[in-house]
Design a protein that fits this description.
This protein has 367 residues and is mainly α. The chain has 14 helices and 2 strands; from the N terminus they run ααααααββαααααααα. It has helices at 16-39, 44-71, 74-79, 81-100, 105-135, 142-163, 186-211, 218-231, 238-241, 244-268, 274-303, 310-332, 349-352, 363-366, and strands at residues 169-172, 175-178. Strands 1-2 form a two-stranded antiparallel ribbon. Helix 1 (16-39) runs antiparallel to helix 10.
């Protein structure tokens, strides 16, 4: 990484407050509140209604934003034709098989997404940590990176292990899928490994920052801290855990929105202005709300024409959409466009505030 001292204002995509809230600060603040509401006897129906409301305006649009980023440009599709064209056919074939065999194929189809989803969260946390470390001008060497990977993967595997303790089955939107029968002690061992990796990462990061005469901003560590809270202490708080996909979506949407503004400005030759930012934000958000509704409402409704129940249709279609999302998300942040300059280093206020015009030189100085 560059040794140049970064501009502290550009550490954040928007601002310290906005980035901190959306990158996980909100989730940490909600943890004790939701724990108290659960212990206080708040009806679960109230929490479910709130969660479903957020599905429409955040969770589902974050899936649509992934598809929009890949498919809105022929050039993007051409860069990754296998992911863009072959993967949807593969997922469609698996989906058809799940509807054709609801007792055999569907449970294992759903099992795949139940396990992969937590891994996907770990991958996003890794990416966010590396992005903010880079923006802060902090070097992350191989040892620190392996420490971080151990922390994230240990947390992911611990969560999976706890889900798979014992025999019998668990449910995903009413569809039963078999547990793997892992021993109960395995989760605790994996958490210990995760914490050891986290210590290696933090010590290495702070030592490197100290040698460079820099500090470690809290935003660099926030995504990893939240990831641990979500899947270790948060696993036992039903009301809190129900909102974890929402907190994940907020992180994702902040990055996707910032990059969308930057790319549209560069490719369209727009000048920074509040009107441009508002128009593009409204357009992009509206498209993704509609896209999310199509993926998670219209498609499951159409699937009911097969004779399947509404809950089964939603479970299988939601699984298909998520699997496609996992594949696509692995490539969309690698999209290369020579006309776009470092979208992951975007600072949104620069896209809103018009650039000052250069002042005219006095004639005497010009001469």
């Amino acid at each position: 990484m560059s040794s140049a001292v970064p501009d502290p204002r550009k550490l954040y995509f928007v601002s310290p407050a906005v980035d901190f809230v959306l990158m996980g600060g909100l989730s940490l603040a909600c943890f004790p509140l939701l724990l108290r509401l659960q212990d206080g006897g708040l009806p679960s129906t109230a929490v479910s209604s709130l969660v479903i409301g957020f599905w429409w305006i955040a969770n589902w649009p974050h899936f649509s934003a992934t598809n929009y980023r890949l498919y809105h440009s022929r050039g993007n599709i051409a860069q990754y034709p296998v992911t863009a064209l072959a993967v949807p056919l593969l997922v469609l074939a698996a989906t058809v098989a799940a509807f054709a065999s609801p007792a055999v194929v569907a449970p294992f189809f759903i099992k795949l997404v139940v396990i992969w989803s937590v891994y996907h969260f770990a991958g996003q946390t890794l990416g966010l940590t590396m992005i903010y470390a880079r923006r802060a001008g902090l070097a992350v060497g191989n040892v620190e990176r392996w420490g971080l990977l151990t922390f994230l993967l240990g947390t992911f595997l611990a969560r999976v292990a706890w889900n798979e303790v014992g025999t019998g089955s668990a449910e995903y939107f009413g569809v039963a899928h078999p547990r793997l029968g892992v021993p109960e002690w395995l989760g605790s061992v994996l958490v210990s490994c995760a914490l050891a990796g986290g210590v290696v990462f933090v010590i290495g990061l702070f030592r490197g920052a100290s040698r460079a005469g820099r500090s470690v901003p809290a935003i660099v560590l926030l995504p990893a801290i939240c990831h641990f809270v979500w899947f270790v202490p948060g696993r036992g708080i039903e009301y809190f855990y129900a909102f974890v996909p929402l907190f994940h979506s907020f992180q994702y949407l902040l990055i996707a929105w910032s990059m969308q503004l930057k790319e549209r400005m560069d490719l369209g030759g727009h000048q920074p202005s509040k009107s441009f930012a508002l128009r593009e934000t409204a357009r992009w958000f509206a498209l993704n709300v509609l896209g999310g509704a199509f993926l998670f409402f219209a498609l499951p409704t159409l699937a009911e024409l097969t004779g399947a129940s509404s809950t089964f249709s939603f479970a299988v279609v939601a699984t298909a959409v998520q699997l496609h999302h996992f594949f696509v998300d692995g490539v969309i942040w690698k999209l290369k466009n020579p006309k776009v300059s470092s979208p992951l280093s975007v600072h949104v206020p620069e896209l809103i505030t018009p650039r000052p015009r250069p002042s005219a030189q006095p004639l005497t100085e010009a001469a």
